[in-house]
């Protein structure tokens, strides 16, 4: 930037005219200032902007564009340079040499009709106009086939100039239908051959009406039928219409059509297009248009400004730097607009050193000190919290004779606010008000944040009142207040600052009320939240239910389920329970381990007329599962199946599979599985694993094998549990080849564990494949797994049942040497093996050892002992065991009585056996 002033040309002609230029001061309440765009230039955005004083604008004569002089003579928007720019700046048409005309800019803009800015806007002719295009309005034609227009008779013999003059005056009127009708008459009477001016006028009408299809047809007609040469004036007329309406896509369409027809644009074309693209922030079209302009060696100052503004606004700073390079490369003579946009681009990027150099170069180029430039720099320094330099700039204003304006003070307030300096921000804030200016919402927001952090509650209250006096929405003020206190984690101070009309607004407005209550709940101020809800004055039952539901869920999510209970117990009671609230409370009570209250709510729903949905069933099922009431969970699932409109989701389906497995409901598992297959549910990895793990005992081995292969085919890797389940399935089915494949796959992925080895050992043991069983035990030990108690139990059971008692004793000895303590399964195996052999003394020793170890016999132990005593002929001891079981709190099962009855029969005690059989039937076994 040091060489900036050397590489850029200065428009010295501006200096001679600048004293004759004035512009009305603009007042902005935002940190960004928009200057309305003109025909040849773009909407100029510099942040921040202020009042521009003592500058008169040399504008594109839009009044000329509304007359036919320009169009009929081939001029108009087409004859002007593209730097027709912004109303805030001075531009000149140095290459045209035409006389400038002065007019009231705002008078012209007040006459512009408001139109839709929809890019797909396609207005068509009114029905009456369509008719008039087909046949000329008979009321306009007299009996001599002439046209009565202001006492002038026009007929087929009228000259082309006369017809064009009438068309021009009609176009200036308010009735577009007459214009279209007369144009139709001119076509019928051969007045359009090579009549470019007439077509330009009718294109202006069509553009004003937004009839783009009609305009396109008219261009084709004038080129192909009327022999008119297409020039930039034709397309500029339509581009100008798009510019006024803000129709970016249609403006780009006409430009591309212009290029496709080999028509070369002029400077005004690029100025209008770039201004239009700036309005719509259309980067792609702007880049294409600027590239085309540079290739054609046109010089449109406002086009560069528009492109630079677009890039800066969209934070495309690297591309913005390239445009600055183009300014140097293309030897652009910078006008005031260019300088200010350039200054803003550097400030937005935080390159304040370069921005200072731009300001210096701007002064050296003959531009007097400008408040906009200083405000831009002050804002730039404020954004990076460099208030020392911002303060220097502020002090420099008096030296250069520039009076600080409203924007200056606002920028200083924002800068000191970012620097967290409450005293300085307050000083400029008070000075702003003393000078008669009103702080904008951003200033008030800054002061409110500083006062929350550094001031007292009374300062906060005063600022809130000021914000309300400025007309700010009370809901917005409340949001700012809550955000400021939440940021500092001082939300507990809100109740003391929320007073007067703002608090009344909260009580009357349900949106603001819900915002405040949610803030209280989030910060564990449940009593304050409930107080607001009790004092509220709005009534909306549906909204209130949704709010209470949201509060309950929020309390649970924030880790305060006890607050959810408070909200629920204090909410208004209703005869019609809200399903969502009750469902959430069942979940909350389950979280609090309060099973009684959770079940009470479910039973209340069950007895009401409310139909439960899928989510409620899911919550209730999980509630029963958590408290171990699996049978009740199954009954809930049965009730759900009766409601045919309930479609369980993936999570509920997996819960159902696990519950049915734990309850050993094989039929339910099989039915659910085939329903899943029939429904065509998309299965993920977890669903495959869950189905295989839960349905292993409910499905045929072939179906399980197919499902497992399908899982692998879809690229899902089974987990360790699923591998072990399939090992058990294949082992019990004696499909050892498949079992070894599964085991190898699990080992390959590092998913084989001790249970995997135990499962394989047990499978070999059941099949009496002692060689592979022993080999697997060695591999287990070799691969770093110590031989587990389960593995020893499997080997004991296998060798014992095969009668290989020597190996049985060896395994038993190795078990004792390994340090593992025998469990119920170990003792039950020993009792069963010794009992089968009739070794009653060994059975007695095992029983004594079992009791000495502190492990009381379980149901399986008693059943095994009864069987052993029966084999040994000790029937009385077997009967005594049944009595002992009951004393120990163990209820005999079907196997217990079956073993006892078999023992009685084997010992010829048939009468006693019959009595026990009748007893079994009586108790329902």
Automatic annotation (TrEMBL):
Domain PROP1-like PPR per the UniProt entry, residue ranges: 198-350
Glycosyltransferase keyword on record: no
Keyword vocabulary terms for this entry: Repeat
PPR repeats: 231-265, 335-369, 370-404, 405-439, 613-647, 684-718, 719-753, 788-822, 823-857, 858-892
Presence of keyword Hydrolase: no
InterPro entries referenced in this protein's UniProt entry, alphabetically: PPR_rpt, PROP1-like_PPR_dom, TPR-like_helical_dom_sf
One GO term of the biological process aspect: positive regulation of translation
Pfam families given in the database record: PPR, PPR_2, PPR_long
GO molecular function: mRNA binding; rRNA primary transcript binding
Family designation: Belongs to the PPR family. P subfamily.
This protein's name: PROP1-like PPR domain-containing protein
